[in-house]
Amino acid sequence: MDATFWATVGLVIFLALMVYVKVPSMVGKSLDNRADKIRDELEQARRLREEAQQLLAEYQRKRKEAEREAGEIIESAKHEADMLVREAKQKTEEYVARRTALAEQKIGQAERDAVNEVRSNAVDIAVAAARQLLADKVDATVAEKLFKSSVQDVKSRLN
Question: Does the keyword Ion transport apply (predicted)?
Fold first, then answer.
């Protein structure tokens, strides 16, 4: 018997022993467990990827919404600034118009006051001149007659 025979016999005994101890089923079970573990990890990785894609989509949606809101806020601020400018311009124009009207009223009043003062001075000068003329031309008897007639005229008008 040569060495190959004994090597073959040893191999067969070894294989029989392995089958008896149930090594192939343990190896199969170990491989099945390993395959299940890899399958679970792949499933978990797939779920995490889907969650990440959902989060990415949600954040992109939120970013677009924030950009839209920022645009609306900017547009609203521009509109409000335009309204404030128009309002300020209108108020300034109204203020200038009121101040102009007030100045014109003051100028008109000053003109009336000046005309009245000139008239008053003219009347005072005319009265003084008439007094001087009457004093030069009228004597005491004529003055007495004028006084009496003036008194009579005042009495008749008062009654």
Answer: yes
φ, ψ (nearest 5 deg) of residue 13: -65, -40
What are the 10-residue block averages of pLDDT along the chain, 159 residues in total? 88 83 81 94 96 96 96 95 95 94 94 91 87 75 79 80
Q: Which of these, 108, 2, 149, 115, lies nearest to 123 by C-alpha position? A: 115
Of 144, 143, 123, 125, the closest CA to residue 134 belongs to: 143
Give the global pTM.
Answer: 0.43
Residue 60 belongs to domain spanning: 3-158
Rg (alpha carbons) of the chain, rounded to whole number: 62
Q: What angle do CA 122, 140, 151 make, to 5 degrees?
A: 65
Q: Which element (helix H / strand E) includes 30?
A: helix 23-137
| Three-state secondary structure call for residue 22 | coil
